[in-house]
């Protein structure tokens, strides 16, 4: 049977929303099952009510744990509560509000009773906290209810402290531990009031997330240049939280902008299937983005077309000359453009990237005369730099990035897919070239890398050994015919553990990391010597890792 990746979902692919919502309330998690306990990954706790991993008790416990955490940290300001369009986001938001109100926490919900992208929540937190010292008890923080690009049956719940970005492992570790204690006690210790009482509570207020974010966009993107150049933009919210934002961006800033598909459907029936025939709102996937790519190639007339995932923290850039851009390619172009066109940024700015992002970024940074700061996977590592303005840009290979305002001050400390989408239009307006055309110019200057990620089977024990490796465990001196120049188990930019291994040569590298959800490890690899050399790097990487983890 032919793979259906890139084709429109069939009725048999769609989740039963009624069953999903019933399970949220009816299924009680088995705390003896590790898969049904609270566990924070790089972007919060995720799971599905149908699997007993994202249910009412999880959210009540996590919210109570966040209440206790923020009290312990001296945070007594408002908590911004945001949600995306996943079916489980609405009941989870209600549960959270019931617990927050019972605990007397001041909560600000969306004044439009709509959806809130992750970057809009981050922007709101930072704007409220501007000028407040770190020990100010009146600082705000936030909760974003979203599993990001995950399939329709999933739910997600993440905490953003007063710095506006993803909580660090100290915070999420404490919250998860306390939440699991509350689950084990069958929620004894969780305060809660009925939803009607929570909505009517004096501590529950409203905030216009959309206006706060959309009105401030000229501070970070050259909106005038986009408007004056008449760039024709096609924006696809992909059924996510950015759906109302794109229309307002076009209207308020008088842009030639079309919202390609304004439909919100918790089943995502309009989506094309991803590589594994699942519905996944991954705007970096050519399969999930097939409809938009087809519109552009079919002569829709857009100079730039864009996509976002469900909480709009990821970006997808489609150009008429190249289709969907590889995220690594676009990050390289964005960095090269921004550091040449932002005169208000600090002169000592550095370039931030995760260690599994393309080495093209290394070469671009060197060409700009800028220091490169390479950090582990996870956007939380970019928060200090974005706050100070020295780390003016931070980006991940998974199509997540943000950068500072035109004056060098902080914009968001979480990934901002809307921002990176608009930047593509600014680039087109200012340079007269598409980002894909500019990338071809970079390859002419720095070489054309081949990049890929593959998965390899690994047991839980093998994954644990991989995560605990030291450089001394790797005896090899060569990789794919080149001398090894570095064996890394800590990120060179900040010395933090990478939870795996990265090996580099002059023209290639690979990184191996255990999956947090499956019995596999991931091998990221890149070569500036072509596709065949990349395959050699991948094969030797797998053999090397397997020999070390047993």
UniProtKB/TrEMBL annotation:
Listed SUPFAM superfamilies: Phosphoglucomutase, C-terminal domain (SSF55957), Phosphoglucomutase, first 3 domains (SSF53738)
Alpha-D-phosphohexomutase C-terminal domain sequence ranges? 488-541
**Top class in the EC scheme:** isomerase
- Gene3D superfamilies in alphabetical order: Alpha-D-Glucose-1,6-Bisphosphate, subunit A, domain 3, Alpha-D-phosphohexomutase, C-terminal domain
Per its UniProt record, the required cofactor names are: Mg(2+)
Q: What is this protein called?
A: Alpha-D-glucose phosphate-specific phosphoglucomutase
Mark the transmembrane ranges: none
Task: Extract the Pfam families matched here.
Answer: PGM_PMM_I (PF02878), PGM_PMM_II (PF02879), PGM_PMM_III (PF02880), PGM_PMM_IV (PF00408)
Enzyme Commission number(s) of this protein: 5.4.2.2
Molecular functions per Gene Ontology? phosphoglucomutase activity
* Similarity field: Belongs to the phosphohexose mutase family.
Q: Residue ranges of the Alpha-D-phosphohexomutase alpha/beta/alpha domain?
A: 38-182, 212-320, 326-446
**What is the native source organism of this protein?**
Sinomonas cellulolyticus
Keyword terms? Isomerase, Magnesium, Metal-binding, Phosphoprotein
């Amino acid at each position: 049977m032919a793979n259906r990746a890139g084709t429109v979902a069939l009725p048999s692919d769609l989740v039963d929303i009624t069953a999903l919502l019933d399970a949220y309330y009816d299924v009680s998690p088995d705390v003896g099952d590790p898969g049904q306990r609270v566990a924070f990954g790089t972007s919060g706790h995720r799971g599905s009510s149908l699997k007993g991993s994202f249910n009412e008790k999880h959210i009540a416990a996590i919210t109570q744990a966040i209440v206790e955490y923020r009290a312990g940290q001296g945070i007594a300001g408002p908590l911004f509560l945001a949600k995306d369009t996943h079916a489980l986001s609405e009941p989870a938001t209600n549960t959270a509000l019931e617990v927050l109100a019972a605990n007397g926490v001041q909560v600000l919900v969306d004044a439009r009773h709509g959806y809130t992208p992750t970057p809009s929540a981050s922007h709101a937190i930072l704007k409220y906290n501007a000028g407040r010292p770190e020990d100010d008890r009146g600082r705000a923080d936030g909760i974003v209810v979203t599993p990001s690009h995950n399939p329709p049956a999933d739910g997600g719940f993440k905490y953003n402290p007063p710095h506006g970005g993803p909580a660090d492992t100290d915070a999420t570790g404490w919250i998860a531990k306390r939440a699991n204690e509350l689950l084990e006690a069958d929620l004894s210790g969780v305060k809660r009031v009925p939803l009607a009482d929570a909505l009517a509570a004096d501590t529950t207020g409203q905030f216009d997330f959309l206006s706060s974010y959309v009105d401030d966009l000229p501070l970070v993107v050259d909106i005038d240049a986009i408007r004056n150049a008449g760039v024709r933009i096609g924006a696809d919210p992909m059924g996510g939280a950015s759906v109302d934002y794109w229309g307002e961006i076009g209207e308020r800033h008088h842009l030639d902008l079309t919202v390609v598909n304004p439909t919100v459907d918790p089943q995502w029936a309009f989506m094309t299937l991803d590589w594994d025939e699942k519905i996944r709102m991954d705007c970096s996937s050519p399969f999930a983005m097939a409809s938009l790519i087809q519109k552009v190639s079919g002569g829709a007339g857009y100079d730039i077309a864009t996509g976002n995932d469900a909480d709009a923290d990821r970006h997808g850039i489609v150009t008429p000359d190249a289709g969907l851009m590889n995220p690594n390619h676009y990050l390289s172009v964005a960095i090269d453009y921004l550091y040449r066109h932002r005169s208000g940024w600090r002169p000592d700015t550095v370039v931030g990237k995760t260690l599994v992002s393309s080495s093209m970024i290394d070469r671009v940074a060197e060409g700009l005369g800028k220091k490169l700061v390479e950090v582990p996977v996870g956007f939380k590592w970019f928060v200090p730099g974005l706050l100070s303005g020295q780390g003016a840009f931070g980006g991940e290979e998974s199509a997540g990035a943000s950068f500072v305002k035109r004056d060098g001050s902080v914009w968001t400390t979480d990934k901002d897919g809307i921002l990176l989408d608009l930047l593509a239009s600014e680039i087109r307006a200012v340079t007269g070239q598409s980002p894909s055309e500019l990338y071809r110019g970079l390859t002419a200057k720095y070489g054309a890398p081949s990049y890929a990620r593959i998965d390899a089977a690994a047991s839980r024990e093998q994954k644990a050994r991989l995560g605990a490796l030291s450089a001394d465990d790797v005896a090899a001196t060569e990789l794919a015919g080149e001398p090894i120049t570095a064996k890394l188990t800590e990120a060179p930019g900040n010395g933090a553990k990478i939870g795996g291994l990265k090996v580099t040569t002059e023209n290639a590298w690979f990184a191996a990391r255990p999956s947090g959800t499956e019995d596999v490890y991931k091998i990221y690899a890149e070569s500036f010597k072509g596709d065949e050399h990349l395959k050699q790097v991948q094969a030797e990487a797998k053999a090397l890792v397997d020999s070390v983890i047993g």
